[in-house]
Design brief:
Pfam families: TetR_N (PF00440). Keywords: DNA-binding, Transcription, Transcription regulation. This is TetR/AcrR family transcriptional regulator. It comes from Sphingomonas colocasiae. The chain is mainly α. The protein contains nine helices and no strands. Helix 4 (about 40-65) runs parallel beside helix 7. The longest helix is centred in the first third of the chain and has 26 residues, at about 40-65.
């Protein structure tokens, strides 16, 4: 409930205007009660990213189990783009506040990022066996960089289609 309230408040008010007390109130708990779960507002962002990554990884696992090999890269690119668009607020907030985070939160973000890249690169290697894991990581990193830009801009549907094509090209390069 706390994460849902935080995500909604960040979207509606922006990160700076969303106080811990307001998030607690929207969650139905007391202001001090929220500190049992989150010590800082940046911890909420990290937790939101963890949830988004877990969701993306589960979707990847499900998709890869049910897709033909020839379609895997295009499906991965579409899945990446869909998640970037859905989680654009969180991605944009993280990119804009990472410099404000303490070392613990920054280290956690890096751990999450490394795990995400490894999982997706491993799947890209399955779809493209000619790639080494390191090469696949480069492709995934490049795609994620592009998608980070996409998420911040929230392009119109015509641009979204173009981003998907570019992400496919990056994963296939």
């Amino acid at each position: 409930m706390i994460l849902s309230a935080a995500a909604q408040m960040f979207r509606e008010r922006g990160y700076a205007a969303a106080s811990i007390d307001a998030i607690a109130m929207a969650s139905g708990i007391s202001g001090p009660g929220i500190y049992r779960y989150f010590k800082r507002k940046t911890e909420l962002l990290v937790a939101l990213l963890e949830a988004a990554v877990a969701d993306a990884n589960e979707a990847l696992k499900t998709m890869m189990a049910s897709i033909e090999d020839g379609d895997a890269v295009a499906a991965m690119a579409d899945l990446m783009a869909d998640h970037a668009l859905r989680e654009g607020t969180v991605i944009g907030l993280l990119q804009g506040t990472i410099h404000e985070m303490d070392e613990t939160d920054q280290a956690r973000l890096e751990e999450i990022r490394r795990g995400l890249v490894l999982r997706w690169a491993t799947q890209l290697c399955r779809a493209r066996p000619e790639l080494t894991l390191q090469q696949a990581k480069v492709h995934v990193e490049a795609a994620l960089t592009l998608l980070g830009h996409l998420a911040r801009r929230m392009p119109d549907p015509g641009e979204q289609s173009r981003y998907r094509q570019i992400v496919r090209a990056v994963l296939l390069a």
